[in-house]
């Protein structure tokens, strides 16, 4: 496994209708490094966003989609998505505040 630091784990937040609705329950969705495990994701969220306490982390591996250009077929890159649930006494994540 590659040497993945905590600032390399979280790639970007996922902003969809479903993920925005889950923010009311303190659930935040992120696109994460494909080799990151749940404990690495928990550590990264708590270090990157001050005052947050992670209660639970759910992850899912997504296969790449098959794409076609003319007669040639290919696949997009595999991705990994994480849904992070914060505790009740935890602060909210600031990057989602203005959305």
From TrEMBL:
PROSITE patterns: RIBOSOMAL_L23. Belongs to the universal ribosomal protein uL23 family. This is Large ribosomal subunit protein uL23. Part of the 50S ribosomal subunit. Contacts protein L29, and trigger factor when it is bound to the ribosome. HAMAP family: Ribosomal_uL23_B (MF_01369_B). Gene3D superfamilies: 3.30.70.330. Keywords: Ribonucleoprotein, Ribosomal protein, RNA-binding, rRNA-binding. GO terms for cellular component: ribosome. Pfam families: Ribosomal_L23 (PF00276). It comes from Blautia stercoris. InterPro entries: Nucleotide-bd_a/b_plait_sf, Ribosomal_uL23-like, Ribosomal_uL23/eL15/eS24_sf, Ribosomal_uL23_CS. One of the early assembly proteins it binds 23S rRNA. One of the proteins that surrounds the polypeptide exit tunnel on the outside of the ribosome. Forms the main docking site for trigger factor binding to the ribosome.
């Amino acid at each position: 496994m590659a040497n993945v630091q905590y600032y390399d784990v979280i790639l970007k937040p996922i902003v969809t209708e479903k993920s925005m609705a889950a923010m009311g329950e303190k659930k935040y969705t992120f696109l994460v490094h494909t080799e990151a495990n749940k404990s690495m994701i928990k550590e990264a969220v708590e270090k990157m966003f001050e005052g947050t306490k992670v209660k639970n982390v759910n992850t899912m591996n997504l296969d790449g989609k098959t794409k076609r250009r003319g007669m040639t077929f290919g696949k997009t890159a595999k991705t990994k998505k994480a849904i992070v649930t914060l505790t009740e006494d935890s602060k909210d994540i600031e990057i989602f505040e203005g959305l």
